[in-house]
Write a structure and sequence with these properties.
The complex is a heterodimer of chains A (528) and B (170). By secondary structure, chain A is α/β, with parallel strands linked by helices. Helix content of chain A is 25%, strand content 18%. Chain A contains twelve helices and 18 strands. In chain A, the strands form five sheets. A five-stranded parallel sheet of chain A has the order 4-2-1-8-18. In chain A, a hairpin with a 2-residue loop joins strand 5 and strand 6. Chain A is globular. Chain B is mainly α and 170 residues long. In chain B, helix 4 crosses helix 5. The longest helix of chain B is centred in the N-terminal third of the chain and has 15 residues. Chain B is globular and about 50 Å long. In chain B, 45% of the residues are buried. The chains are: A alpha/beta (528), B mainly alpha (170). At the A-B interface, helix 2, helix 6, helix 9 and helix 10 of A face helix 1, helix 3, helix 6 and helix 7 of B.
């Protein structure tokens, strides 16, 4: 039995912890935030069922961390707060997500070779395919093989799909008659009871599923909590990775964010703290020799190549009611625009006709005073004719997108991370192209109007990627395809931070597949 | 998708069934004030809860409500400072105007609420009347508009594949 320290209890950290515990290792999982209730019934009550439009959620889930513990200096074009998007709690961002889980397409691993932009991954779809199968079982993915744009798979989905809604089918037929192929959405929302999780009951609030039908990492935390091989250390700020004689030997952390620092010894250290904090921790962990600029940073790669999805929200307006919000949000989807012919000059995308709970619209109309039920009902009626469209666009890492250390410091005197995010021509071209695509979708569906948010009003979907890019050597990357830091044995980085590019696909399933693959390799490394 | 004619019929039928806006009265409404921020929290007593529920029926214009109004009031009282006090004060004000409030017709109850609202200078308009309409807009309103259930309730995973209400057509 070997000791493993994992930093970050999000979906990647918990996946690693689960598989390493199952392999017989002692795992200490460090989380800067605290625990959050699971199943997420209290969160559902506070944020959905009994949400008060006129006052902030109470109680707040997860508990907010002090500003001198969780900080980030931001510059560039993103209008929202990267810092607020970092959900520091056990389960992390995957305590509230929609659970959309496509695989990457085979071509996504070779953008440079096939389309002349970005950089190829140091692995192929075929390398990852068996781990996609394991990840789909791990998360309990509901889906079917109706996507003509998906790459081959060696196993069926573990669970049957969420069928298209009544309106989806009508829209799909109209789109199909105009040459746009649509399909169902693979998702980590169980269609029926699975692995101790109850089947979906269609609350329509997948982002805060009250019963655990939509996957949360807390599910697997509970499965190993009493194993005797697992310790969950919450409210612990890890400040440094300890490297001795060129090898990772543990972490230095502050329990309860207090002044006392403890050195925790381990045979392997895995950073799974997200693209910002994993890079920051490597940069802070300076030592002599090849580590004088931080671990894994001999050629200055740590913090570069930050990326995120550009999610542009829009909606279609129909002359007649279209009845949005009848199913859990993810239903109708198309990957037809993921690999456009001109890919390289601009990016591809996943386009969702999101059948979401129209909470935003309700919130907006709630802001006005209504005299009685009839007036309130009249105000809602226009919502019946709306259907949300989201464009999940890829981008390409560039010199204006990076993480470094800032001049602002936390309570222990360590610099917070600084994140700069500037659009480039690729991004502008991508947005312009999708404006035209959404307009085409409007015409095909028979909608009478459409709206797509301007380029600057994008949302990252909290997909913070890159900064510790995987590659074949230290000259242009930080880790190998298993997450092992070049030239520093015993230290690994796992998760979206190792992504080479931001593909048109939602990243979470790939992050989990990579984590399972890394867990197997780390277990082998520890045995050796 | 429903044809426009079918949709209009459906909505008209739903609204008729509502008997919304009983007696055609409208509440006196000033600007919506900020929600309360300070005060004790705790469980609501039955009498206060009864006044709130009977007020909700009057405001919405419907005796039968399926939305989570009771849970909403209890949740605010238990978790948000200030709500317990304002709910109790509101209930007391209503009782002063009409000791038999629950026995009144929807229209008469609405008249009482109108008077209470005016006398309180809008104190209850935001945290009680407006928020009650907010609960309505997230629950019963969707059913009245033609949905099989409202988002936030367990609607099952079959009905969304059928037309919104039996008999409607694309």
């Amino acid at each position: 039995m070997r000791r493993v320290a994992i930093v970050g209890a999000g979906i990647v950290g918990t996946t690693l912890a689960y598989h390493l515990v199952k392999a017989g290792h002692q795992v200490d999982l460090f989380e800067n935030g605290g625990e959050t209730p699971y199943p997420h019934t209290p969160q559902f009550e506070a944020n959905v069922l009994y949400a008060n439009h006129f006052a902030p959620p109470t109680p707040v889930f997860p508990t907010e961390l002090p500003k001198d513990i969780k900080g980030l200096v931001q510059s560039g074009d993103y209008e929202q707060s990267f810092n607020d998007e970092r959900i520091m709690t056990v389960g992390g961002q995957a305590t509230r997500w929609f659970g959309i889980t496509p695989r990457f397409q085979r071509e996504n691993f070779r953008p440079h070779t096939l389309h002349g932009f970005g950089r190829d991954w140091p692995m192929s779809y075929e390398d990852l395919e068996p781990y996609y199968c394991l990840a789909e079982r791990h998360l309990g993915i509901s889906g079917t093989v109706d996507n003509p744009f998906a790459s081959p798979r060696s196993e069926p989905f573990p669970l049957p799909p969420f069928e298209l809604s009544y309106t989806d089918k009508i829209l799909a037929e109209r789109l199909g008659s105009h040459g746009i192929r649509t399909h169902t959405t693979p998702q980590a929302r169980v269609r029926q009871d699975y692995d101790g999780r109850p089947g979906c009951q269609n609350f329509g609030a997948c982002g805060t599923c009250p019963i655990g039908a939509r996957y949360s990492p807390n599910h697997h935390i509970e499965m190993i909590r009493g194993s005797g091989l697992f310790r969950l250390r919450t409210n612990c700020l890890v400040r440094r990775v300890i490297v001795e004689h060129g090898r990772g030997r543990g972490v230095a952390y502050h329990p309860d964010h207090g002044q006392r620092q403890i050195e925790h010894r381990a045979d392997a250290v895995i950073l799974a703290a997200g693209a910002v904090e994993s890079a920051r921790l490597l940069l802070l962990s300076k030592a002599g020799g090849t580590h004088r600029d931080g671990i894994g940073n001999a050629s200055g790669q740590v913090g570069r190549n930050f990326g995120t999805h550009h999610v542009w929200w829009g909606d279609l307006t129909f002359a007649d009611p279209i009845w949005p919000g009848r199913a859990g949000p993810p239903t109708l989807l198309t990957h037809q625009f993921a690999l456009p012919e001109e890919r390289g000059r601009h990016g591809g995308s996943t386009i969702e006709l999101f059948d979401g709970f129209p909470g935003g619209l309700i919130d907006r109309v709630q802001s006005n005073p209504y005299l009685n039920g009839k007036a309130a009902l009249d105000a809602l009626r226009p919502a019946l004719n709306k259907r949300t469209v989201t464009v999940n666009a890829e981008m390409v890492p560039g010199p204006g997108k990076y993480v470094t250390l800032s001049g602002e410091r936390d309570r222990f005197g360590d610099p917070f991370a600084a994140l700069n995010y500037k659009f480039d021509d690729f991004d502008h071209e991508t947005h312009a192209r999708h404006e035209a695509i959404v307009k085409r979708i409007m015409r095909a569906t028979g909608a009478i109007d459409y709206r797509l948010s301007p380029i600057g009003s994008f949302w990252t979907a909290h997909h913070h990627l890159g900064t510790c890019r995987m590659g074949t050597g230290p000259g242009d990357s930080v880790v190998d395809s298993f997450g092992a830091i070049h030239e520093t044995p015993g230290v690994y980085v796992c998760g979206g931070s190792t992504f080479v590019t931001v593909t048109p696909m939602q990243p979470t399933l790939s992050m989990v597949a990579l984590a399972i693959r890394s867990a197997a390799r780390i277990s082998e490394d520890l045995a050796g | 998708m429903l044809s426009r004619r079918a949709a209009n019929l459906l909505i008209a039928a739903g609204v008729s069934a509502l008997m919304i806006g009983a007696a055609g009265k409208e509440l006196h409404r000033g600007p919506v004030l900020d929600p309360p921020r300070t005060g004790p929290t705790g469980a609501l007593d039955d009498a206060t809860l009864s006044i709130l529920m009977n007020s909700a029926q009057a405001l919405i214009g419907r005796e039968a409500l399926d939305g989570p109004y009771e849970g909403y009031y209890q949740y605010q009282a238990l978790h948000r400072p200030g709500y317990l006090d304002i709910y109790k004060a509101f209930a007391a004000a209503v009782r002063r105007r009409a000791a038999d409030f629950a026995e009144l017709s929807l229209g008469d109850r609405l008249a009482v609420l109108d008077r209470v609202s005016a006398l309180s200078r809008g104190r209850y308009d935001g945290p009680i009347l407006q928020e009650t309409l907010g609960v309505f807009m997230k629950s019963d309103a969707w059913v009245l508009l033609g949905y099989n259930g409202w988002p936030g309730s367990p609607r099952g995973i079959e009905s969304y594949q059928t037309p919104p209400k039996a008999g409607s057509s694309a």
